[in-house]
Amino acid sequence: MKCFLPIVHLVVRRYRPSDKDAVLTLFCDGILEHINPSFYNAISNPANVGVTLFLSVAGYMLGGGSTVWALLSAGAWVGLVYYCCRDLYSSFVRERLRTDMQDIPGCYLSHPDNCFWVAETEVNGRVEILGMVGVVAKKVVGGRDREMCGELFRMIVSSKCRRTGLGSRMTQTVIDFCKERGFSKVILETSSIQTSAVALYKKLGFTHILSHTKTYSPEWMAFLSRVTILKMEKAI
């Protein structure tokens, strides 16, 4: 859903402890919304389509020409693919709620080179958080002595406020923060399903440097979900 609030009414500020409940809700909603797109992408993959058709035919033949067995066989496979896609994102949410998202001040605000921001606006007299993003300073692997970069984390824009420029604004906030601290680049990871996010990052000058399938789910689940993790970076 597109936001009809002018972007100038949105204020980007540092996280406050009182934001926790709203931020956690936004985080969970923003990650879990990728389950269905991930499933549609996976089940339409030619290999998965082939398996679905094969199981359907096999079920029909082994069931003595029963369409019920054909549907059950194909349905079991489709259900497994959906389960893999769901677990891929829900396991990520569980892990993050157990770690950094449980202690945002400790993980993102206890060091001057780290930060966490939210974007808020007033709707019908009530303040609502519509975006969030964090950054953590890291030493550049294989870089010069004391060369640092900033890793962008937890970029979420509410479905109520898409295509307004908020994603660009939040990302630029991270880039500007890293520039002020003399970092050499900004790095991030996103999933291949998040095509809008990938397009946004490329528009802002990020380049795709590598892909992997390491997630909090078993490797076979990541394989069946057909999701890859993209690592991107921008020199600053």
TrEMBL record:
Record Pfam families: Acetyltransf_1 (PF00583)
Gene3D superfamilies for this protein: 3.40.630.30
GO MF term set: N-acetyltransferase activity
Keywords linked to the UniProt accession: Transferase
Record's keyword annotation contains Iron: no
Domain N-acetyltransferase: from-to ranges: 95-230
InterPro entries given in the database record: Acyl_CoA_acyltransferase, GNAT_dom, NAT_camello-type
TM stretches of this protein: none
Protein name, UniProt field: N-acetyltransferase 8-like 2
UniProt source species: Hucho hucho
